[in-house]
User: What shape does this take?
Amino acid sequence: MKSKLSLLILALFVGLSSAYAQETPVADTVKQEAEVAAQPAATPVPEQAPPAKQKSSVKDKLYFGGYVNLSFGSYTVIGIEPMVGYKIVPRLSVGGKIRYDYIQDKRYDETYTASNYGASVFTRLRVVRGLYAHAEYAGYNYKNYNEFGESDREWVPFLFVGAGYNLRVGKRASVFAQVLFDVLKSDKSPYKSWEPFYSVGVGVGL
Assistant: This one.
């Protein structure tokens, strides 16, 4: 009787132990899943937008400079010509100039001198590095003399075309030289047809 009771107790103990062993992993799994669910979700890192392209200001598109105008012969010109330009695109620009010239006229028996002045607008296209094409419309006020030595003043129009070369000598500074021809050839012009106009100058911001 005692042996049967002992066997019954032993069988009950083994059964309980087996049931506990099967339930424990399930409980642990449920507990782990609950802990994972309780953790806060990771915040996604926002993608960095590409840096915005910096726009050029008006100041960056402006350039300044000036010329010394030289023309020698029976009608000699020594002048200065400050200018300001604006770059529409890196290769194309427009601008304006004012001009003052000292004149020595030897076309008559007596040599005459005068001071002339005027203004112009121009456009410039860079063809290759340093080399540019140039077109310019100008109006200059001249003091003219007749055969009796009498003088009067009149406005003379010009349409210059030509080319020049710009040599950079610093971060923003440059020197340039150009040669232009007047294709308008007004009958009031004191210059001969296709007489070249040579200019050398300096610029900042070109």
